[in-house]
Amino acid sequence: MTIWTDLAGTDFEVSHAPVGGTPTRVLRAGTEGEHVVLLHGTSGHLEAFVRNIPALSAKFRLHALDMLGHGYTDNPGGDLRIPRYVDHVLAYLDSRGIERASFIGESLGGWVAGRLAADHPERVGRLVLVAPGGTVANPEVMDRIRTSTRTAVRTDDRALTRRRLELLMHDPANVSEELVDVRHAIYHRPQFVAGIDELLCLQQMDNRTEDLLSPEQMARIAAPTLIVWGAQNPFGDVPEAHRMQQSIPGAELEILPECGHWPQHEHSARFDELATAFLA
């Protein structure tokens, strides 16, 4: 499958919307139902959700963003910390006149969505947190993310980009040639290369510990929450998911077998069923 065939038959538009003075790439699809914002992971981009957009846009109005400094959305300057991501997402909602939305956040996107829900409960309907990051600071995992990403960005070798994507999957076959092409092109944009250390700043211990989603913050999340986790998630063991479930009042947890860090991609049909039922 390719990105184009994944989206074939689905009405969507991709544009650059001015958000707080920063042109922000967004894919919008769906004309009915609740607004649902899709947020990707570290060094990712909106294509992380292409397998989900056809099914979800049949029920919801989707907004898949390239977050600040990611994809084709530039960083105006400075380290990309969680409060900045939250402010950027809120500015996007305001730019569209959306008072309240639900969120599907994967990895870093789940961290951002969780923090937004804790600090701005009036803006959040429901949360689907997909292998969310931000509750622990594991030096080994942080070094793996930082080293693999920086190497793939600073070396124009397509194989390194493929290796970075394969880190996310239980089955490397889920990394298509087209997905590698898309990410390789993004990784080698001059703006992206210049800002890679600012993008990776949360893989530094002092920044990360200060921005962690604390048990106290998670206890403040009032939005109904579903956590989706891969049994073979290379960036977080299953007990981490259980601790998060226990910290968020009333949270549900679904662990998918034979699945890595991208449940929404590796098990897209099952994920779409879970997310549609929960968000509805």
Write structural notes for this entry.
The protein is of the alpha/beta class. The chain has a single domain, classed as Alpha/Beta hydrolase fold, catalytic domain (Rossmann fold, 3-Layer(aba) Sandwich), CATH 3.40.50. It has helices at 3-7, 53-57, 82-95, 108-119, 139-154, 158-166, 177-187, 190-194, 196-199, 205-211, 215-219, 238-247, 263-266, 268-279; strands spanning 12-19, 22-29, 35-39, 61-65, 101-106, 124-130, 225-230, 252-256. It has an eight-stranded mixed beta sheet, sandwiched between helices. Helix 3 (82-95) crosses helix 4 (108-119), helix 5 (139-154) runs antiparallel to helix 6 and helix 6 (158-166) crosses helix 7. The mean pLDDT is 97. This is Alpha/beta fold hydrolase.
The CATH superfamily label reads Alpha/Beta hydrolase fold, catalytic domain
Q: What percent strand?
A: 15-25%
As a whole number of angstroms, the C-alpha radius of gyration is 17 Å
Number of domains: 1
Largest sheet: 8 strands, mixed
Shape: globular
Distance N to C terminus:
28 Å
Strand runs, count: 8
Poorly predicted runs are none
Structural class by secondary-structure content = alpha/beta
Number of helices: 14
From the coordinates shown, what is the CATH architecture? 3-Layer(aba) Sandwich
Strand order of the largest sheet: 1-2-4-3-5-6-7-8
CATH topology: Rossmann fold
Can you write the helix and strand succession as a string? HEEEHEHEHEHHHHHHHEHEHH
Mean pLDDT: 97
Organism: Pseudonocardia broussonetiae
Protein name: Alpha/beta fold hydrolase
Pfam family, one: Abhydrolase_1
GO cellular component, one term: membrane
